[in-house]
Design brief:
The structure holds 2 protein chains of 2 kinds. Chain A is an alpha+beta fold. In chain A, 24% of the residues lie in helices and 21% in strands. The chains are: A alpha+beta, B mainly beta.
Chain lengths: 94, 152
Amino acid sequence: MLVIRRRAGESILIAGDIEIEVLETTPTRVKLGIRAPKNVDVVRKEVGLIAGENLSAAREIPLDLLSPVLALLDAGPAPPPDPGAPPQSRLPRR
Amino acid sequence: MPECETRYFGTISFEEPAVIRFPAGLPGFAHCRRFLPLQDASRKPLIFLQSLEEPQLCFLTLPIPAVDPAYHLKMNDEDRALIGLERQPVLGDEAECLFIIAVGEDHVPSANLLAPVVINRATALAVQAVRDDSVYSCRHPLRPLAEVSACS
């Protein structure tokens, strides 16, 4: 890993057109400003990780697999037993 | 009333005010902005987040209290600004908060506690608020309580 020391107000340049400027430093955090071409995707690393998790969550989930878990979670007041009822949209309430 | 195709319920009709909007989409699904939260009486407390742009995209979610009543929500300034919240929201009152469910290869369902979906009730705007810290897991296993207490 390349290590560079920089102070607030100083920048580094990547591939000629991506600029990362150190805007502010505190003992626990660093505030960065990033200037990059529109086609360069800039996200926090955690967000990149979550994109992968979302893709996996978007796969078909057999609902019966969840039944034992749902049965034991706090479901609130029991709904009237009407298995033929259409799904209800809920939230938000304004 | 408008109609939409859904992944789990066929074609249904819905009311426009029920739609929630993600101004920035979700990570991995930046183009999906409009979702319809659905609840099926026989699958409570599950909430289905059905995409209105992609009929095949439907996230299964659970409200925070059902998974972890002690969960401490922490959103960064950018995420709050995106959905019009001036301060950390009060759950259930100002904001509804959902965890996205996934099922791993081991067939154990898990909830993403690292990146809850937060919906501003007043504006119907939503964001998947990825936490800056690592206090919570993105694969928190959901096990029936009976299985856990059986060890005692």
